[in-house]
Design goal:
Blueprint lengths: L6 E4 L3 H9 L6 E3 L13 H17 L8 E11 L2 E3 L5 H11 L3 E11 L5 E11 L5 H10 L21 E3 L2 H5 L3 H10 L7
Parallel strand pairs: 1-2, 1-3
Antiparallel strand pairs: 3-4, 3-5, 5-6, 6-7
Length: 197
C-alpha cells in the first residue's frame, strides 16, 4: 500500500537522513525547524529531548506549505548525570565534554515526534547507556584534531572514530547516532504511515 501523504523530515541532520535511508525510508522533503533550543531552568535531559522533538515537529506542521503530510522530528541529548551536554561550539567545549565523559557512563536520550495528516501526534523518548573508557590526553588531542566532534551532541560521534572509546552500550545504537530506528518506525506505523513497496 503506497502512502498518499508525503513524509517530511524536520531535521538538518545528515545522520538522521542516512539512518532512515538505511532502513529504506526516503523522506519526500526535508524542512529545517526554527525553535529556541535553550533548556529551561532545571529542565532534565529526558524532558528536554521530548520537548524539543515535539516543538520541532510542531514548527513544521504549522507552516502553510506543510500540507497533509507526516512530519518526523527528533532531538538527541547527551546527558552526564542531570547535565545536558549540547553540541560543542568550539574545540575547547569538545575537550571539556570528552574529559567529563572519560571513564564514565552517560545517557543519550532521543525524543522522537511524529505528526500525522489531520494532526494526530505521537511522541516518545528512547534512552541508551554509553560507557566511555578512560581517555588519555593524546587520544583526546587526536580526536579533537580530527574535527569529528563538530556539530555533535556531547562532542563525539559514536559512528566514527569515537567508537574506539566505547567498550559497551546498553540500548539502541542508532539512538546514539541520532534516531532510534525501531521506535521511529513504530510511531510512524502507529499513525498510519506505510512504507512504499
Amino acid at each position: 500500500m503506497r502512502n498518499d501523504a508525503p513524509l517530511i523530515l524536520a531535521s538538518s541532520s545528515p545522520r538522521r537522513l542516512d539512518l532512515l535511508r538505511q532502513v529504506g525510508v526516503i523522506p519526500d522533503r526535508i524542512a529545517v525547524p526554527e525553535v529556541d533550543e535553550t533548556p529551561l531552568a532545571r529542565e532534565l535531559p529526558r524532558a528536554y529531548a521530548l520537548r524539543m522533538a515535539d516543538a520541532k515537529a510542531g514548527d513544521i506542521a504549522a507552516r502553510p506549505d506543510a500540507g497533509a503530510a507526516y512530519i518526523l522530528a527528533a532531538d538527541t541529548v547527551v546527558a552526564c548525570g542531570r547535565r545536558i551536554l549540547g553540541k560543542a561550539d568550539d574545540v575547547d567545549a569538545a575537550a571539556r565534554y570528552l574529559r567529563l565523559l572519560s571513564g564514565r557512563r552517560h545517557r543519550v536520550y532521543t525524543g522522537v515526534a511524529v505528526i500525522a495528516p489531520g494532526g494526530r501526534r505521537a511522541v516518545r523518548v528512547v534512552m541508551t547507556m554509553v560507557r566511555f573508557k578512560r581517555l588519555s590526553q593524546p587520544e583526546i588531542a587526536a580526536y579533537l584534531a580530527s574535527g569529528e566532534w563538530q556539530g555533535k551532541a556531547g562532542g563525539y560521534a559514536i559512528q566514527g572514530r569515537a567508537e574506539a572509546f566505547i567498550p559497551a552500550i546498553n540500548g539502541s545504537f542508532s539512538n546514539v547516532v541520532g534516531l532510534p530506528l525501531a521506535t521511529t518506525l513504530d510511531l510512524l506505523r502507529g499513525l498510519g504511515w506505510r512504507p512504499d513497496p
